[in-house]
UniProtKB/TrEMBL annotation:
GO terms for molecular function: heme binding; metal ion binding; oxidoreductase activity, acting on single donors with incorporation of molecular oxygen, incorporation of two atoms of oxygen; peroxidase activity. Pfam families: An_peroxidase. This is Catalase. The keyword Nucleotide-binding does not apply.
Amino acid sequence: MHRFRRHRRPAAPTPAAPPGELRGAHHESYLGGTPEAERAILERLARDLMAVQLKTAARRGAGAGVDRAFHAKAILGVDNATLRFRPDLPEDLRAGFARPGAAYPVVVRLSNASGAHAPDSAPDLRGAALRVQAGPDRVHDLLMTNFPVSHARDAREFVAFAKATAGADTTVRRAVALYVRLPLAVGRSAAARMRRNVLAGARRQVRSLALETYWSRAAVLWGDAGPVRYRLRPAAGPPPAPPVPDADPDRLTRELTARLARTDVVFELCVQRYVDARRTPVEDGAAEWRDEDAPPVPVATLTIPRQDLGTADARAAALAVDRLAFDPWNTTEEFRPLGNLNRARKAAYEASAAHRRGHRFHTPTPLRNVVVGRLLAAAFGVVNRVVPWHRLPTPVGILNLMIFRQVLRRHNLIDVDADAAAAPPRPHPLPPPVPEELRTRRSYDGTYNDLSAPTMGAVGSVFGRHVPAVHRPDLFDTPNAVVVSRELLRRDAFLPARSLNVLAAAWIQFQVHDWVNHGRCPTAVKGVEVPLPPGTTWRNTPGGPPENVMRFGDDEAVRPGDGRRPPLLYANNASAWWDGAEVYGADETVARSLREPDGGAALRLEHGHLPAGPDGVPLTGFRENWWLGLSVMHTLFAREHNTVCEALRAEYPRMDEDAVYHTARLVVSALIAKIHTLEWTPAILDTEAIDVSLNANWAGPRGWLTRLGAWLVEERALTGIPETLPDHHGVPYSLTEDFVTIYRMHPLIPDEFAFADHRSGRALGTLGLDDVLGARTETAFRRIGLANALYSFGNAHPGAITLFNYPRALQTFERDGEIIDLSVVDIVRTRRRGVPRYNDFLAAVHKPRIRRFEDLSPDPDTVARLKDVYRTVDDIDTMVGLFAENPPEGFGFSDTAFRVFILTATRRLQSDRFLTVDFRPEIYTPLGMDWIHRNGMNSVILRHCPELAGFLPRNSGAFAPWRPTAPDAPRAAGARRPR
């Protein structure tokens, strides 16, 4: 096993130490060989522990709720104890808060060790938890049990024991757990050792918890003194336990109550110093540090003062103490917990506490789902080599997709943020309490969606991966990205997507701006230079000189490359949650500036339009890459927000304006998510299997055959995601670099737009994309009007997502005082972000690699041009390969991109607290829930432009082509520009 040697400043050798071995040097070894591998193992163990909690709760009966996995039954909880360090504290033990004579307030919780609320007479270990308040924002949690060693040698044994004994609240169940389930989990010899340790401590009769000694059992650092174990033992001369009937199920509580009514309860805190790896091992929690090898040294006195535990104040304090989450990692670096078992306790305690508080959730997977899922995965793996999923009968195709989503969850959820997740873990201050208002409303920046991991998915969190990153600086400019763009992407002639309208193109950019936003460095600070083909030049600024390179700003990396690790972690400057941030803003300052003055709930509008900023671009949550399609969408949903506000005020007149605003934001954000799931996606992926699957995502499957498949394969899919619990599937939620890559859908945007009056069908003129970009947008929009813009976009086709169809206007796109070719930027950034080339991408999402260019496209001209640009099929850029694929019938984008989509589409809903466990009337209000249920894109359009009712498709959604006015009338000739 790999060893991680942690060096500290050498201290004087103890007499017992062999020559040359110092008290400050010790070893820590990691499960799986590395901190990162151990972290993944411990995350699985944490999920197992949450399953233990659910099993224990089920034993207690309906409505019992989730309790602590261990030490569930409190015997004593007080918040007025004192820890005072000895005046003669040894010099080498003086560190941090451990100072001679220093005194600190302490919270004390004494408990039984089991996860079940058994009578105090039942065989069990007992525990002590101390929270030492060493400063305003600094605590040290000390956790101990009344037996010198742990039953578990390491983390695997720790959770195996918990799983085996979960719910073992009777003699028979406990015997089955210890003598049947435990040997199956850890082996006979380990099980025998664990039973000896547990039974030795549990069989001993305990008369009073004030008379017990409690051991830490695992080591911690103690400043420069190095590793120590600590213990709490009764101070000399405590009175014997008063008589309490053994039959009393709460006799230990009653004994302590009687004792504290008469006298203080006093303990000594002692430490044992590390000697050597044999006699005082750090990693083996089941090995005792014997007193003869490491004598205990008294360092402090803990005093629980005399008091009446029956008063209302004392009962309230006990209840508050019982709600605390003790964790040995609530400490400082000087007192860092050591060893595998302590690292397991971090994962276990954090998961257990979050689960108990309703901050983290676990949904057990039925055994039939595991067995049937694996069998079907193998079967479909064979079938799909011959028949792809989209050519199977619809019910079988849907089942195939469910199975493939499970395969992707197992293999393509990659947790990239090892630094932020701290592997190995670091001590931390006591986590701040969850702000009460954020339990019922979305934060501005996406924090506190997951209450157990407040920064998950928030602004500034990193992009994840579905495909392992490939860092090849030598291939950043191979083949030349400008050549790729000119030869394979440039729009030769507009290729329409006839099943859609331009609203679909506007919608997806509207959504992407909510989800993802890479930070860009200014070109002058950190620019990327793309060499141009010989004989060509580029003007990088308006009116600038011709140059032989194309220049634009690089992405901001979370960490710089250091020669060993490439800079492949990038922060998302948008919240990854579906929270409407493109409308509302991603920070409080922006969000408040968009509202009506004096804290009004409504968004600011001027005559129904968004107010323009100093640069001419409307003031809204996300203003980059602005064009008329975004103006339409932002205006429409700003109006919708204000209408929801009016309805809330009318229904709930006592609701204050801030509550109205945040509730309306919840409602509109959820409505947007519903529209995307149930309307936009089935429009661009127009097959029965996708329509049924996405409706099942939102509302549960219909039809007995589909329901049977869900019951066999994924039981939680029976209800629809909004009725399930949040589930990140073992990896913190984020959007990924691969997701960004598949949503490069710029070919959807036409280079010019024809506008018409919806009332008469009279042509208003034609505008090029350049005419409706940036500051020019609002002038055109206000002339045309919202109803005519919607009508004109509804009757126009977007471009097909294919090669040779990239908008020419975006290949000479002026942004922030620079001129860029957005297609070149897309290619270069995808390469530099470490997204693999197309063939490697195929393999990573479980598709066969292509061997010839002809495998990618049946069109001879396309194949010839691909061969001209790329040396081999392995060099093809991912974006080019996705555009070149022949998609399944009815699909608007490639099957390869779809594989990333089916993993993310469910995850965006299932990870979000406000679209699962908190998608309920108490949070959204009954009116809000009804609003989401009854509405969609058609009703949103008609609420704000009722005059368009006759033009919307009868049997399709708003993203399908609309009915034009007077289709048989000749088109009016005249001006090219709207009047």
